[in-house]
Every structure is written in C-alpha cells, then in structure tokens.
Amino acid sequence: MIKIIERFLAWALMVCLFLILIISAVEIAAYSDWGYYEDEFEKHHVITDSGLMNIEMDELMEVTKQMMSYLRGDREDLVIYAEIDGEVTEYFDERDKSHMVDVRNVFVTALDVRAGAFVMAIIIFANLCLLLNFDAVKKLLFKAYLWNIGYLSLFIAAIAVWAVVDFTGVFYKFHALFFSNYEWILDPEVSRLINMVPEGFFVDIAIRIVVIFIMLILIMGGVLLFLIKAIPRNRVKNTSVPQ
C-alpha cells in the first residue's frame, strides 16, 4: 500500500510540474519577444493599403502590447485607439472585446492554476521526502517523469496528426472546449482582431508553444538525471588513509 501511495504522489507531482511547464510555455511564447509578432504580421500580410487594417506597424505593435497586457490582467479594458486608414478610431469593436473578455478569463485562470500547481508540487515533494530518503525520491520522480513523457508524447502526436489533417477542426474544438459561447466566431469583414491574428498565426504560435514546452521538459529531465548521477546526500566518501 505504501508503494502505491509513493508512486501516486510521484505521478501527481510530475503532473503538477508538467502543468507548470505548459502554462509557462504559453506565457513565454506570447510575451517573451515582441519582434515575433511583427514578423508574424509581415508574414501573414496583416497590414493593408486601405480599409480595416490600413495601419502603421508601430501603431499595430502598440495595440498588440496593450492587448497582451489586458490578457494577463495588467490592464482593465480594451478601449484602445489607433490611427487606421487615416482616422483615429477605436481599434476593437464590441464583439472583439466580448471575445477577449473570455480569452482573458482563460489566461488569468491558467496563471492561477500554475500558482496552485506550484504550491501542490511543494506539498507533494515534502510528503515524498517524509516517506523516502532523497535518493529514492529522485529515482522515483525520474521514473514518473519517463511515464508521463510517454503518455504526453502519444497525446501530442495524436493532436499533431489531427492538426496536420485538419487544423481548422482542432481550432474550432479548442474554442468550443474553452469558451461557452460563440463570440469567438468573428467576421473578417468587420473584425480587426481576426484580421490581426489569422489562422496562420495560430498555427505558428502553436508550433512555438510546443517547441518551448519540449525544451522545458528536456531541461527538467536533464536536472533530474543530473541529481540522480550526482553524489547522494546520504553517502559520505571515506577519505581517511588506512593505517
């Protein structure tokens, strides 16, 4: 029974750590490099010579920064003005703003989940250290890490195949899962938001998130492996000279 509890705790700790990493990967992908957005806007020809998206790049980047500040809870509203097609006007329409309220709720909730997962990880680790010595904890966590990597790899592979075959279907399923209404279905004829971040943008940032997530997982695995290979805490090397 004790062995089952130990394995469950190790698995739960690893799930907490993976949650922390995936949410951190999303945050890093979205907030670590503003130049990425400029490159994406150019790649997908977001700016036009007239109409809804006739806007200077500097102006569009300022809107982007204000929007991203709003999504993480650092700005109270999305009332953002910009010069578009030669006229200063409010950038987002009411449907854009309504959808972004939902996006903000998802993102802020994810940050809260990450904080909760961090606290849970500390509590679980402390309990494992009460049940086992540090060497046993390291080895058990590495086994749990490998098991979770296996399950996660299968899940990511399945989603990747689905996305390659039908990314629009994945996109719609994702929104249906996280949003309880249809405010996310935007009309490109009137919505600057959907013109600003077209489907191609989401393909690119999804790949970016997965790559960052994999890098973070590999770093975590490397740390665990290093700890296992390092001199155990409960073993002191005898350096005395024989008489």
What is the distance, rounded to the nearest whole angstrom, between the alpha carbons of the first and last residues?
Answer: 48 Å
Q: How would you describe the oligomerization state of the chains in this entry?
A: single chain
The helix/strand order is: HHHEEHHHH
Q: What is the percentage of strand-forming residues?
A: under 5%
- Taking Cα atoms only, what radius of gyration do you get, to the nearest Å? 23 Å
Read across the widest sheet, the strand sequence of neighbours is 1-2
Number of strands: 2
Derived structural class: mainly alpha
Contiguous runs where pLDDT drops below 50 for at least 5 residues: 235-243
What is the domain total for the residues? 1
Number of distinct helices = 7
Outline type = elongated
Largest sheet composition: 2 strands, antiparallel
Helical proportion, percent range: over 70%
The average pLDDT value, as a whole number, equals 90
Structure summarized in a few sentences:
The chain is mainly α and 243 residues long. Helices cover 72% and strands 3% of the residues.
